[in-house]
C-alpha cells in the first residue's frame, strides 16, 4: 500500500532512491527536488516549501518539526535533527529502549526563505536559520542564525554578511513568472506554453 503525503505540490521531483517515511506528516510544496539517497524520517511534521532542493545523502530526522521555507537549499550530506536523546543522563538512550526508560527530547528546526545550508553541515534541534542565512560546509549549528549572515565552523559562528539586494530582486521578478496575481503557483508546463 502506498502512503500518500499530507500535501504534495506540483512539479515535484523525488528521485527513486530517496527514502521518505511517515509520509502522512509531510507537506511538500511546488517545484521541489529531493535527490537520490536523501533520507527523511518525519516526526511530528515536516513542511518543505516551494522551490526547495534537498541534496543527495541528506538526513532529516529526530521526531520533531522541520520546516524548510520557499527558495531554501539544503546541500548534499547535510544532517538536520529535530530531536535528540537526553545526553545529560535523564533517561536511557537509543531507539531500541522503550518509553518510559528512554525519553527523547523533541524540538524543531526551521530553515527560512532563501537560506542555504552547505555540504555536510549539521543542524541540531531548536535552531532557526534566518532568512537568507548561509551555513558553510561542515559547520555545526547549535544556535539560531541571523538573517542574511554567513556562518561557518564548529560551532558555527557569524563570519560575514550576505548581500540580499540581488537575491530579493531576482525572487520578486521570478515570483511574477512562477505565481499568479493571487499567489497561486503556475505549473511549469503552463508557463512554458504562454
Mind explaining what this structure looks like?
The strands form four sheets. An eight-stranded mixed sheet has the order 2-5-8-11-16-19-21-22, with no helix packed on it. A six-stranded parallel sheet has the order 1-4-7-10-15-18, with no helix packed on it. A six-stranded parallel sheet has the order 3-6-9-12-17-20, with no helix packed on it. It has 194 residues and is mainly beta. Helices cover 10% and strands 31% of the residues. It has one domain: 3 Solenoid (UDP N-Acetylglucosamine Acyltransferase, domain 1), CATH 2.160.10. The chain is globular, with a radius of gyration of 18 Å. The N and C termini lie far apart (38 Å).
How would you sum up this structure in a few lines?
With 194 residues, the chain is mainly β.
CATH architecture: 3 Solenoid
Quote the CATH topology.
UDP N-Acetylglucosamine Acyltransferase, domain 1
Shape: globular
**Spatial strand sequence of the major β-sheet:** 2-5-8-11-16-19-21-22
Classify the beta-strand content into a percent band: 25-35%
Give the end-to-end Cα distance, rounded to a whole number of Å.
38 Å
CATH-defined superfamily: Hexapeptide repeat proteins
Q: How many E-type strands?
A: 22
CATH class: Mainly Beta
Helical region count?
2
User: Which residues sit in consecutive blocks of at least 5 with pLDDT less than 50?
Assistant: none
- Biggest beta sheet summary: 8 strands, mixed
Structural class, from helix and strand content? mainly beta
- Gyration radius, in Å: 18 Å
Mean pLDDT: 96
Total discrete domains: 1
Query: Percent helix among the residues?
Result: 10-25%
Order of helices and strands: EEEEEEEEEEEEEEEEEEEEEEHH
